[in-house]
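Form 12-C: Joint structure prediction
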Amino acid sequence: MALVLTEEQSMLRDSARGLISDKAPVSHLRHLRDSRDPTGFSREFWHSFAEMGFAGLLVPEEFGGSGLGFVEAGVVMEEIGRTLMPSPFLATSVVAASALSRGGNAAQKSEYLPKISSGSLLATLAIDEGAKHRPLQTSLQAVRAGNGFRLSGAKALVVDGHVADLLIVAARTAGAAGERDGLTLFLVNPKARGVAIERTIMVDAHNAARIELADVEVNADGVLGEVDQGASLLDGVLDIGRAAVASEMVGLSEEVFNRTVEYLKSRKQFGKLIGEFQALQHRAAELYVDIEITRAATMKALQALDVDVAKAGSAVAVAKARAGTTATRAVQEGVQMHGGMGMTDQFDIGFFMKRARVCEELFGDANYHTEQLARARGY
Amino acid sequence: MTDSETADLEQFRSETRAWLEANCPPEMRKPATSDVDVFWGGRNAKFASEPQRIWFERMRDKGWTVPDWPREYGGGGLSAAEHKVLRTEMGRIGARPPLSSFGIWMLGPALLKYGNEAQKQEHLPKIAAGLIRWCQGYSEPNAGSDLASLQTRAESDGDDFVITGQKIWTSYANYADWIFCLVRTDPAAKKHDGISFILFDMTSKGVTTKPILLISGYSPFCETFFDNVRVPKSHVVGTVNRGWDVAKYLLQHERAMISGMGERGVGRPLGQIAADSVGTDALGRLDDSMLRGRIASFDVDEAALAACAERAVDLAKAGQAHPAFSSAMKYYGTELNKRRYEILMSAGGVDALEWESERSKLGARPRAWLRTKANSIEGGTSEVMLGIVAKRILDLPGA
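Section 2 - Result
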């Protein structure tokens, strides 16, 4: 498989870019933030997104989706990254849709996937509990009760948690925190008794929530995949999410870089364009190379996922680790090279810095994924 | 790609796999660890081993020393997609390149683009068959990063040029049969406009070479002197005084070659090499957490660069590559290779310091470590590469 977009993928990119840059430039995020929008994204725009087939992009055609692959999902995420558009695409269309189509039984798939495709159902994965992403440390308890389970515990950084219609909750049905065995995924109705949801306003003005479950009853139909054996389903779903976030970070990095290079070509000091200074030229060139290798590593990961999700782990770790360091560098250079302007809220660059910080924590930061690669390589 | 093209490619893959399995000797399925393991061809070439000879001859007979060159010039005539399949399949079994050659990596592509038919007929098949070993006459004592200021003169005399001057850092000039050389044919023109790209035999009267001893203790480079060397004008590639176009085009290929040097590296994963000397803890992890972190970060960057190198080839085949992209790759690849060897030295500790013992294979590691320091200098320094990226790709202002 060539590491370039096919003609169809380029067309998808162009239509996503056209739509997003037209309807949801960075000012869209600014408006949602400043108006303290209760939803945190535009439902109207989400419906037009769904009409174009993006909401069900990964959903198989038999469930009303487009049946496309992870490279295509990455293409859309990258365009989202360019304008920092808040959108249910990541949580609902990428992560939750993958969890349901990979782990769901026939009834679960036919209940939820068509609604995701039509844009009428928002869903999200609730995974993190501590300050850092550590899936195997999951300790939210699910104990057997009657025909089902009773769930108790807390989750953080649940993307779109306060607007989701369906929560996919990682819980421990056996074993101790840190163990691979004993993890189970549950489909939880956010309106069920015992569910408390706190929207957390985040640094990047994107959606997140903390969720507490107190003896929440879930019947046996609410188990996604196999009891105690959720780790491998979770691995795959998380890797899909990681590669998607890496794509968003590629788009974000490239956009902040393009804006910075334009600034270097227009800002004058000492009677010169600051882009004439070699100190800045070389730093810009280094950043360009970083972004190019990150883009390639991310495409590689997305293609690997399309071939076999179960075997894409190392490629995904490389992509997410690289995306983290590259985006961090890109936004820091972006602010620094814009000088005092970069520090102002009125200027957009700060939004990119804030979003990059959240993307870095989402589904594991660069250190986490670098560690995963070391373990996979056996040293 | 249509379904039938995909099917043809899969057919090619299975045939190639079977052929490689049957024809690549087991000894040629591990990375070269020293220069002796590399076959360079040429009039005085000797094979280091029988498997090396067999592997070279079998690949040569299929045209797979230069798989994507046209068949009429001794190549394999493979399409871009087939070439990628061959590389992947060779990589799968760890097969070494059968022939290493500046003719393949640098001159060949330049001749294919700028050479006339007679030049292509004369030189390309001999490169493909490993009959002639080439060296590169570019740098001069006063023309390094500022290559276009070169001063080696070529004066017109009837049907010939008469060449006088000095080159430096000429890789393996003392083993080379022919040289591709930049000479000044118009001293009055602006510096980029008076240069020609010319080919001549190193046994010509007036050519001498003198190896330069480097910090590695080896002499891969020479000083090369020309004293009234007579060369037919028909040996100029491209147009007289337009040699800089050829030179730049060739440099793109040279940079791609140098950036790929790291990939041919050391075979086993760095973390495992380090574990052998440093040891592991109870969890089987490298017993030096800082070194382990450095290695893991290196591995991330190396994998990302490998993906980018693959993408660069795919972009070129799709006609979407920026011509200066090889400068970006050269910068990153060479800096990464220096990092690799700093890690290897740190991992090796005291054992990596021996210079002459048999135990250390005559100091293979410290010598290789020192050799890598040239990677970010030769073929254009890292600073020159960043300047090229800044100006040609990013279009930043200034000289």
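Section 3 - Comments
The mean pLDDT of chain B is 93. The longest strand of chain B covers residues 160-171.
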